[in-house]
């Protein structure tokens, strides 16, 4: 018998999840400040990478490999739009590669400390180093799988977009208006798919820290929990991502622009840059707390469904078993 996952309404609204997360952050600010300081090197690297990308030797190499790949796929775009697309992808890939060592070290250490604090029965208790390592190892493995998942989703979306363009052109709909409409539709769908993937990856990291799942099985558990609640998860993630984008824009405006206009580095620029990077770390901490709160709500709703006898689903030791569907 095929196992169905009925949609269980999430009692807490997205704004309540955000409010609870901010309240948790303020209530345990002394502990989360340490996590923000741990994430500070990642924040600095991420903010500076957007400025240093044009000077990186990786950018021309990646751009040189992407251009023939897009040409071979017969992407029917104007030369100007084609150049913008390939350059944007090249800059994004270069920035991700430059920040990757900090993402796998400082960022994961900060997220592990947050998940460890929130997984305790009473957050004021001092977490132990051994429990930290027991959480960090599965989180690291899950993050590596998340990277491969995001790359696979991007490659799949672009492949489907290429096929759609070629199919439309084969049917004779090769006018600029139809191609532009398809490109806009594809971009919207791509954004939604990528946003759902990122939310799922964040839940998988929390699942790895709380329930000690690792790798693919943590991602599978996150997919099960988020089923039927994608709209709530996206509504929670949007304000946090807007805040991250706002801090990045603030860094470009207050630090990078001031440096370009002065043509020299002054002391107050460094202090202001550290302050903006610390704000970025605070938002990263709040994002992790929001993911933990969302995970807790989704797991509670999932258990309610089991107790009501709607379904019974079990993931253990790398095995996925459909035990029973109760009447």
Global geometry: globular
Strand fraction: under 5%
Whole-number mean pLDDT:
77
Strand count, sense and barrel status of the largest sheet are: 2 strands, antiparallel
Annotation, overall tally of beta strands: 2
- In total, how many domains does the architecture comprise? 1
What class do helices, strands and sheet pairing give? mainly alpha
How far apart the termini lie comes to: 12 Å
Question: Could you give the order of strands across the largest sheet?
Answer: 1-2
Uncertain parts: 1-10, 304-327
Helix proportion: over 70%
Listing every helix as H and every strand as E from the N terminus to the C terminus, the arrangement reads: HHHHHHHHHHEE
Rg for CA atoms: 22 Å
Keywords for this entry:
327 residues; mainly alpha; 78% helix; disordered N terminus; disordered C terminus; membrane
């Amino acid at each position: 018998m095929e196992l169905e996952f009925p949609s269980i309404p999430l009692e807490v609204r997205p704004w309540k999840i955000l409010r609870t997360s901010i309240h948790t952050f303020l209530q345990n600010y002394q502990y989360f400040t340490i996590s923000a300081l741990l994430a500070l090197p990642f924040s600095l690297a991420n903010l500076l990478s957007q400025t240093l990308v044009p000077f990186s030797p990786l950018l021309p190499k990646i751009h040189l490999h992407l251009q023939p790949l897009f040409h071979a796929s017969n992407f029917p775009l104007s030369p100007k739009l084609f150049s913008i697309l390939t350059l944007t992808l090249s800059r994004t890939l270069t920035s991700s590669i430059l920040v990757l060592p900090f993402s796998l070290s400082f960022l994961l250490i900060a997220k592990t400390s947050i998940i460890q604090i929130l997984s305790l029965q009473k957050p004021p208790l001092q977490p132990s180093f051994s429990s930290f390592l027991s959480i960090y190892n599965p989180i690291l493995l899950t993050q590596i799988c998340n990277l491969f998942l995001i790359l696979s989703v991007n490659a799949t979306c672009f492949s489907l977009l290429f096929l759609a363009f070629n199919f439309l052109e084969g049917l004779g709909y090769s006018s600029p208006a139809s191609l532009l409409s398809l490109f806009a539709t594809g971009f919207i769908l791509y954004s939604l798919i990528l946003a759902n993937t990122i939310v799922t990856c964040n839940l998988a990291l929390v699942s790895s820290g709380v329930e000690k799942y690792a790798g693919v099985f943590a991602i599978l558990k996150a997919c099960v929990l988020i089923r039927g609640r994608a709209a709530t998860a996206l509504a929670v993630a949007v304000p946090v991502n807007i805040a991250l984008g706002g801090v990045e824009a603030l860094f470009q405006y207050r630090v990078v622009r001031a440096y370009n206009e002065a043509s020299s580095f002054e002391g107050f620029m460094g202090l202001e840059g550290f302050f903006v990077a610390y704000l970025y770390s605070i938002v990263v901490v709040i994002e992790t707390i929001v993911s933990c709160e969302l995970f807790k709500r989704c797991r509670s709703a999932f258990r309610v469904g089991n107790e009501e006898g709607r379904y019974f689903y079990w993931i253990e030791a790398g095995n996925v078993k459909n035990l029973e569907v109760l009447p």
